[in-house]
Write a structure and sequence with these properties.
alpha/beta; globular; Metallo-beta-lactamase, Chain A; binds zinc ion
Length: 284
């Protein structure tokens, strides 16, 4: 099982000289198996480069969305496979608290986009049953869901395949000021013993209490959770748009100093490929 980070930034794309190392595209992670099966997590601007890769194939495409905040869907209109005739694309929207489960499509409507979603040549199917889908299968993977602690709701995903377990949890506030939708203990159960946890840590401690309730976690909270859950590899994503490469390296070094002997911990870099058969090092 291999994992590639196509977009690791939260909130808004951040091109510029201070984000070259970690990357500026918004959320998108691609997972593929030796069997050829694959899955896309989120459709932020990172999915645009992934589209250049997938447009050369004809295989069915499965996209799991955590939620519909713009940084998780804004790359979709520029994802080349949507312009391929009859290309099968299935989208699972997160368990959001609003009725517009189809926002990834309707962002291509009205005055917002020149190409309207009804005119896309691909065969696009939206799974509307997400509320009752606690566990489901997509080709090659068993998927479990857990509700995010995040404004407007959403879903985290745990994927198992080829004897490996990956948890994708973003955007998520581990210690929200009000009642948690999913408690710390429930997160521990959900991600227990994961080979890889990909979790949002948009904040440092100094960002709180101003940003309490905004739906993100701190580096220290996430590392503590990973440690308690016996996670083997932690990759932090949803980097704050204002966080520079230098600052991310500093936060990463602090976590590695504290936890590096127990598990691998990194701030995810766009373009990194992780081979979970060789969990100790990135292959690119
Ligand atoms: Zn969000």
């Amino acid at each position: 099982m291999k994992v590639e980070f196509y977009g690791v930034r939260g909130s808004t794309p951040t091109p510029g000289r201070n984000t070259v190392l970690f990357g500026g595209n918004t959320s998108c992670v691609y997972i593929w198996l030796d069997s050829g099966h694959d899955v896309i997590l989120d459709a932020g601007t990172g999915i645009i480069a992934l589209g250049e890769r997938l447009v050369r194939k004809t295989s069915d495409i499965n996209i799991l969305l955590t939620h519909n905040h713009w940084d998780h869907i804004q790359g979709f209109p520029y994802f080349k496979p949507v312009f391929q005739a009859k290309r099968n694309i299935t989208i699972v929207p997160g368990a959001i608290e609003y009725a517009d489960k189809d926002a990834i499509l309707t962002q291509m409507s009205g005055s917002k986009h020149p190409v309207k979603y009804e005119h896309l040549p691909a065969d696009i199917r939206l799974e509307t049953n997400i509320e009752v889908m606690k566990t489901f299968k997509i080709p090659g993977f068993t998927v479990q869901t857990q509700k995010l602690n995040h404004p407007d709701g959403g879903s985290a995903y745990c994927l198992t395949a080829e004897g490996k377990k990956i948890a994708y949890v973003t955007d998520n506030e581990l210690n929200p000021p009000n009642k948690a939708t999913t408690t710390w203990q429930q997160w521990l159960d959900f991600i227990a013993d994961a080979d890889m946890l990909i979790h949002d840590a948009q904040y440092i401690d100094a960002d709180l209490p101003l940003k309490l309730g905004w739906g993100h976690s701190t580096f220290l909270e996430v590392a503590k959770l990973a440690n308690e859950a016996n996670v083997k590899n932690l990759y932090i994503i949803s980097h704050d748009p204002a966080r520079t490469d230098k600052e991310l390296l500093r936060e990463e070094a602090k976590l590695q100093a504290k936890y590096g002997d127990i598990f691998n911990v990194y701030c995810a870099r766009e373009g990194t490929v992780v081979d979970l058969a060789k969990p100790m090092k990135a292959i690119k």
